[in-house]
Design brief:
The structure holds two protein chains of two kinds.
Chain A: H1 2-14, H2 18-37, H3 41-62, H4 69-73, H5 76-82, H6 87-116, H7 121-148, H8 156-182, H9 188-217
Helix pairs in contact in A: 1-6, 2-3, 2-6, 3-6, 3-7, 3-8, 6-7, 6-9, 7-8, 7-9, 8-9
Chain B: H1 11-42, H2 57-84, H3 87-119, H4 127-148, H5 152-180, H6 200-245
The chains are: A mainly alpha, B mainly alpha.
Chain lengths: ~220, ~250
């Protein structure tokens, strides 16, 4: 598993595309928002947590079709399926790599970008915390979507259609916790729910994703 | 052989039985729906505070109920497919999706039409409205996956897995949305075990409409599943012909 992790990390960092692209997309979305809603500081502060959450979510979505596609095309996925490691483990690693190259950088960049939207220090802190807790769920769910669409020629658009509804609860609890945090309200409930979704997704979704991969390789 | 429900998983038996049942169900559907709607529309008084607009309830509530129940039915038939590999079962799920989608749209639109005079707005981010919008997206995704995968068995497996995972997330969304915004809807006013329901004048035609919508669903489901089975057969025939040619 560790060998696969290292290999995938190397591939995704060196092969270009995914790694920087997600961050650049996140930056551009954040820059575009004030153009859309106007430069009023009060409004920007109020919508900043939600905008940054949506930006992170879309940036996550952008790199999802690469999670399995290359490995499917060159046959690596078949080898993984016949390897002694269970498919569930391989799926876990894939999701972890996706999180390390998109979720984690996005989380680290979010407080910085929050400055552009005039989010206060407390808001930045909670934004960082919620993204840190929530993005693993985004990667897990996204990996499931990628597993469903791995055999398809043009799965990209379908992937978004499948994954975005599944992102709804994560987005609601994540953005709600960040918003409450930035306004100085109690964040415990949404934060716990968000953590619960992440924990549940990490625990259960690998089985569904692995099943989908096996079906697609048949 | 002992009688069991499972024998209708055999497409031949299913086709024979559904051919026999279909005209009866169709007739019963027409009868219930027509009676229920006419009773509801013309022979109930307008309610206090609501006026005549209350009568849209006879379409709004049944379609909303069906929209949710059809998803549950799809979950059950998908599970049956995954566990026992009965083709009719998964074809029924596939056929149900479009009906469910239509019911969701009907519920949303009648809700909008009703919401304008009652709440003064066509749309509000009320939990139930939002949940239905999310449910609508789930139906769309499920159908899109069916349409995208070429191999029918692969498509059946993938959509079944999606249906299972989707059900969990749909339920989660429901609670998330509830948490996110308190709504305009009243609490549950229809249940069989409660003493106090909507007054009987409205309740009786409403029950009839609910039954009518269930029957309507069964009719449409039978028709669509039958055409799916036939489509499968045509595909098999074409395949065999190609094999013979090549």
């Amino acid at each position: 598993m560790i060998a696969l992790l290292i290999r995938d990390m190397r591939l995704s960092i060196r092969a270009g595309g995914g790694f920087g692209l997600g961050l650049a997309f996140f930056l551009i979305v954040t820059v575009l928002v004030p153009f859309g809603v106007g430069p009023d500081t009060a409004i920007l502060t109020r919508i900043a947590p939600g905008i940054l959450w949506i930006g992170a979510l879309l940036a996550c979505l952008l790199s999802l079709d690469r999670v399995f596609q290359l490995d499917f095309e060159d046959g690596t996925l078949d080898l993984l399926a016949t390897a002694p490691m269970p498919m569930e483990g391989a799926v876990m690693v894939k999701a972890l790599v996706h999180w390390l190259v998109t979720g984690l950088p996005l989380t680290l960049a979010a407080p910085l970008l929050a400055t552009l939207l005039h989010l206060g220090a407390e808001g930045k802190f909670w934004l960082f915390v919620t993204l840190l807790i929530g993005t693993p769920a985004l990667s897990m769910i996204g990996t499931f979507g990628a597993a469903l669409t791995v055999g398809l020629k043009r799965g990209g658009l379908l992937l978004s259609l499948l994954v975005l509804p599944l992102y709804v609860p994560t987005l609601i609890f994540g953005a709600e916790a960040a918003r409450r945090g930035s306004e100085g309200m109690a964040v415990t409930t949404p934060l716990l729910m968000l953590a619960g979704i992440t924990a549940g997704a990490v625990a259960l979704l690998p089985f569904a994703s692995a099943a989908a991969i096996r079906i697609n390789l048949r | 052989m002992p009688m069991s429900l499972w024998q209708y998983a055999n497409p031949v038996k299913f086709m024979a039985l559904s051919a026999k049942v279909l005209p009866w169900v169709t007739g019963l559907t027409v009868l219930t729906l027509v009676t229920g709607l006419i009773w509801g529309f013309f022979f109930t008084p307008g309610a206090v505070n609501f006026g005549t607009s209350v009568k849209i309830i006879y379409i709004h509530v049944p379609s909303a109920m069906m929209a949710i129940n059809i998803w549950i039915m799809m979950l059950v038939t998908s599970l049956v497919w995954l566990i026992r590999r009965h083709h009719v079962s998964v074809l029924a799920a596939k056929s149900a999706a479009l009906i469910g989608l239509t019911m969701t749209i009907i519920a949303l639109i009648t809700g909008m039409i009703w919401g304008q005079p009652m709440w003064g707005t066509y749309w509000a981010w009320d939990p139930r409205l939002t949940s239905f919008l999310v449910l609508f997206l789930f139906y769309l995704g499920y159908m899109a996956l069916w349409a995208a995968v070429e191999n029918p068995d692969t498509a059946a497996d993938l959509t079944s897995v999606l249906c299972m995972v989707g059900s969990v997330f749909a339920l989660l969304s429901r609670y998330a949305v509830n948490f996110w915004n308190q709504g305009l809807h009243q609490g549950a006013s229809l249940s069989l075990d409660k003493e106090e329901n909507v007054s009987d004048v409205y309740f009786q035609p409403l029950l009839l409409c609910l039954a009518g919508f269930v029957l309507l669903f069964v009719t449409l489901l039978l028709i669509r599943t039958r055409s799916e089975v036939r489509r499968r057969r045509v595909q098999a025939l074409e395949m065999r012909e190609r094999m013979a040619d090549g």
